[in-house]
TrEMBL record:
Domain of life: Eukaryota
Pfam families associated with the record: Ig_3 (PF13927)
Record-given protein name: Ig-like domain-containing protein
Transmembrane segments: 352-374
InterPro entries the record matches: HEPACAM_domain (IPR052280), Ig-like_dom (IPR007110), Ig-like_dom_sf (IPR036179), Ig-like_fold (IPR013783), Ig_sub (IPR003599)
Localisation: Cytoplasm; Endomembrane system
Length: 495
């Protein structure tokens, strides 16, 4: 062999090739097995995810409840651990619960405001905040180390205000109308409940105005139940309730008083099988328990101790059935009770009538006497005016005049004396009736003046007539003309 290679070298080379092939085959098999084990390990750590669930919450309730049901239970592969976390820009762990532990472990700001229940996988947050909105993730770890995850999106929605229900009923009490009123600008949907059951349109129940108004026809006592108006805004809703009750019959009051007229008992009687509440009013004021007023038998009976005439007033028994009530009244004043009955008027006999008449006459006489004393001057002047007499007289021009004659002498009162500073006016006429006859007996040439004695009564100055002639039964006295004063020139006086 010229190349120096014999059969030994060829055998050694073949053995090397066989070892290399065998090693490659072994390593490839081991690699496949290791790769398979790695895949199985990674597969065991893979989480089975489900679509995101949305939870609507109203901040009005302040305590959102987040609950995610467990997958179907496998007894051979039970749940061993549950974890909750809040996702977002800064993910944060909320809690971790091991099945072998009684209570979970809370983290961070959720430590004192979170409650978790492992049995139904429910999380409750207290005093919800604005940052609590968002996506929550729950991870369930099984015994074979498989992980099941689910996400829940918590969103806030504002509920409508609580509705108020307005009740109307016609005069004949046949048609009942309930109107739901909500102060909100939101677009809401409405429905009604009657004793907790949904009301549907039928012959007796009508729903109008987008279900805002409920009308009940042919109303009976069976319709006096609880009604609920439900106003919904998407996933949240508010409710308004009203309880309609049958009013009780009007109570009757029975009065009793003991023989000594010291204790008064008023008993309220109502013919009704309903459970009612009672209270009493005295002259419109609520009666409370005190030393003189006792309320017994669920306020059905009122007892008044040490009765006086001041207790003879109006009493009212009020029977209430929830918000509706009836009243019964009794007025003790003027009733058959001796203490409250009016006293009879005394009999007026002849003696009493005469006494009253004499007393009235005496009083009238005293009043007349006092009037005369206080107004004597006015009375005297009035009497003097009544004594004047009107007589006919003839003036210088021949016109007939009516002259009023009054007594010449009259008493002068002190009140009538004028001050010295005043001057008396001159008389225009002089009466001569009181003067003696001026004609001398047997005088032919005419009357002769005779001296006239003045006793000091007259203050009239001497008047010199122009001419004087005697006529039968008359004297004519001519005086200076006073026509400018509206009086006659000649005044004829009786003799």
């Amino acid at each position: 062999m010229g190349n120096g290679m014999g059969p030994g070298w060829m055998l050694q080379r073949d053995c090397y090739v066989l070892r290399e092939k065998a090693l490659w085959s072994f390593s490839h098999t081991v690699g496949l097995i290791l790769h398979l084990l790695l895949c199985l390990h990674c597969l065991s750590k893979t989480a089975f995810s489900t679509p995101v669930q949305t939870a609507w919450f109203s901040p009005k309730h302040r305590h959102p409840v987040l609950s995610i049901d467990y997958p179907p239970e496998d007894k051979a592969n039970p749940v061993t651990q549950v974890m909750w976390k809040k996702l977002g820009d800064k993910p944060s762990r909320i809690l971790e619960q091991l099945k072998s532990h009684q209570s979970p472990k809370y983290y961070g700001r959720y430590n004192n405001r979170t409650h978790y229940y492992f049995q139904n996988n429910t999380l409750i947050l207290d005093n919800i905040l604005e940052e609590d909105k968002g996506i929550y993730e729950v991870s369930v770890v099984y015994k074979n180390n498989t992980i099941w995850t689910k996400k829940l999106h918590l969103q806030f929605i504002m509920p409508p205000p609580d509705p108020s229900i307005k009740v109307e009923i016609n005069d004949s009490h046949v048609i009942l109308v309930l109107r739901c009123e909500v102060e909100s600008g939101m677009k809401l949907s409405y429905h009604w409940l009657k004793s907790g059951q949904l009301i549907l349109q039928d012959e007796r129940h009508s729903l109008v105005e987008r279900n805002l108004t409920l009308q009940v026809n042919n109303v009976t006592s069976a319709d006096c139940v609880n009604y609920t108006c439900v106003a919904a805004n998407g996933q949240v809703q508010s409710e308004g309730h009203i309880q309609l009750k049958v009013p009780p019959p009007d109570p009757r009051i029975k009065v009793e008083i003991n023989d000594s007229h010291v204790i008064l008992v008023l008993r309220c009687e109502v013919e009704s099988g309903m459970k009612l509440s009672y209270h009493w009013l005295k002259s419109g004021q609520l009666i409370l328990q005190d030393e003189r007023h006792s309320l017994v038998e669920r306020n059905l009976t009122l007892q008044v101790n040490n009765v006086t005439s001041a207790d003879c007033v109006n009493y009212t028994c009020v029977a209430a059935n929830g918000q509706v009530q009836s009243e019964g009244h009794i007025q003790l004043k003027g009733s058959a009770i001796e203490l409250c009955s009016p006293s009879p008027a005394p009999d007026l006999n002849l003696k009493v009538i005469l006494s009253i008449t004499v007393a009235a006459i005496c009083v009238f006489g005293v009043c007349i006497l006092i009037l005369c004393i206080t107004h004597h001057q006015e009375i005297w002047q009035w009497l003097r005016g009544r004594s004047c007499i009107k007589q006919p007289a003839t003036g210088r021009s021949g016109r007939k005049l009516n002259v009023t004659e009054c007594p010449v002498y009259e008493e002068i009162w002190e009140e009538q004396i004028l001050p010295a500073a005043q001057e008396a006016g001159q008389l225009l006429c002089v009466y001569t009736d009181f003067m003696p006859n001026c004609l001398g007996a047997g005088s032919i040439q005419g009357p002769v003046p005779m001296p006239i004695e003045d006793f000091g009564y007259s203050t009239i100055q001497s008047v010199e007539p122009r001419s004087r002639r005697q006529t039968k039964g008359m004297f004519q006295l001519e005086l200076p003309s006073i026509g400018e004063m509206g009086a006659p020139d000649v005044l004829t006086l009786g003799k």
